[in-house]
Here is the input.
Amino acid sequence: MIALLLRDLRLATRAGGGFGLGLVFFLIVVVLVPFGVGPETAILSKIASGILWVAALLAALLSLDRIFALDFEDGALTLIATAPIPLEAVGLAKATAHWLTTGLPLTIAAPVLGVLLQLPANGYSFVALTLLLGTPALSMIGTFGAALTVGIRRGGLLLSLLVLPLYIPTLIFGAEAARRGTAGLDATTPLLMLAGITAGSIALLPFATAAVLRINLR
Amino acid sequence: MLKVRDIAVERSGVPVLSGVSFDLAAGHALILRGPNGIGKTTLLRTLAGLQEPTNGTCEFPVDQAAYASHADGIKTALTVRENLSFWADVYGNTVPDVIWDWFDLGDLRDRFAGTLSAGQKRRVGLARLGVISRKVLFLDEPTVSLDGFSVKLFSSFMRDHHLAHGGVAVIATHIDLGLGEAQTLDLTPFAAQDDGPSDSDEAFL
Here is the structure.
């Protein structure tokens, strides 16, 4: 499992690996929002935490179809499936690699980009905290979606359509916790719910991912 | 070491082979023959555990089995050495130094796999078998895009380093590998009866 994780991280940083694509997409979306909404700081600071969350979610979505599709195309996935490594661990390793190359950089970049959106001063820590808690769920749910669509040609759009509804609970509680924290209100309940969603995803979805992979590789 | 009894397999719900039985003792290889589409790949995938047989049983030490498909699973953005060490790690081995000689990869070991020719990639894919050192191999067209010299390298690897150490192999191939003692199994007689429209008349009679 560690070997697979290291390989995926190495592949992500090599040419054509797509590392940083999500981050640049995140940057562009956040830069575009003030153009669309207008430069009034009052409106921007009010919606900043929500925009950061939606943009992070879309950026995470962007790189999902690479998780299994590349390994499926060159036959590596079949060989990994017959190797002495359980498919549940494969799912978990893939999701971890996706989080380390997408979710973690987004979490680190979000407070920096908050400056562009007039994020209030006490919002920085909450945006970073909620993304840190929520992005692992985005990666794990996305890995499950990627496993569902593996083997389908041009499955990227279908993958987005399948995964976006599954992202809704994470987005609701993540953005709500960030909004309440930014506004100076008590954010404990949405934070706990967000942590629960992430913990539940990591506990259950590797098994669902493995089951779906088994069917798709048959 | 490998015992297959009356196995039946299907591809996307269509039965392709039925009643296939064979035994392989340690140190022996079985060559699968038959025209395209007869079900060689499906049989190998079933034996490798990627799909369930619809009937019959196969017995072999599952923790000693490995499968090699048409595709090599070589990552083009990694070097040859990185590719092989990944598989070594997954199987809990290290890359033996002799592997470079066995498959004539010495000059290529630090090249990116994306810069290799099809035949060279194939050699890397076959070198994986030497790295993971499993006793029961299921090989699907291992010699595709290899030149004569590379086929000889592969044959001598199979003979001297795999079969000679008590391994077994089931190989689907169309060429003569030069494994003298290998048994041959022609799958043509085992083609599953097509229960499709051709039999529908009988239902009315």
